[in-house]
Amino acid sequence: MKKSVVISQVSGKQLSPPSVEHADESELVLEHAVQRLNANILGLVLGIIAGLAIFVATNFLIIKGGAVVGPHLGLLRNFLPFYSVTFLGSVIGLGWGLVFGYLAGFVIASLYNLVVKLKGR
After folding, report:
1. What is the largest CA-CA distance in the chain?
2. How far apart are CA 59 and CA 65, in angstroms?
3. CA 121 vs CA 23, 38, 97: distances in Å
4. Which long-range contacts (CB under 8 A, 24 or more apart) does 52-57 make?
5. Separation between Cα atoms, residue 92 and residue 106, nearest integer Å
């Protein structure tokens, strides 16, 4: 294999093109940078975030009070059985948020890992 040399017009120094070994090294660095995700950890994190979001939003509306408390948030009872805009409902919403958030995070991480695995072939 013939190695070519390029002379820079600005500095007058010789620049050699990237070698095959350098390309392999950069591939290894990229491979190490793109790590697989832990599906359980991502699921747990998204579950905690989703559950806390429902819990905090519900309790904020309860504390805020008013004649009609949270009619829009109350629509969640269509998707979350036993949920209501009460303190007990916020605890139930926290549980459902944990469940749905965990499932979403698990699916996202699993799909990501599948793409990374297929890309590595």
Report:
1. 83
2. 10
3. 17, 20, 36
4. 52/94, 52/97, 53/97, 54/90, 54/93, 54/94, 54/96, 54/97, 55/90, 55/91, 55/93, 55/94, 55/97
5. 21
Count of C-beta atoms within a 10 Å radius of residue 24: 10
Residue 24: the pLDDT is: 72
Residue type, 36: R
pTM, 2 dp: 0.70
DSSP state of 8: -
Q: Where are the alpha helices (DSSP H) in 3-120?
A: 20-33, 39-64, 87-120
Residue 26: predicted pLDDT: 73
Residue type, 119: K
User: What are the tens digits of pLDDT across the range 16-45?
Assistant: 555 556 667 777 776 666 788 899 999 999
Averaged pLDDT, 43-50 = 98
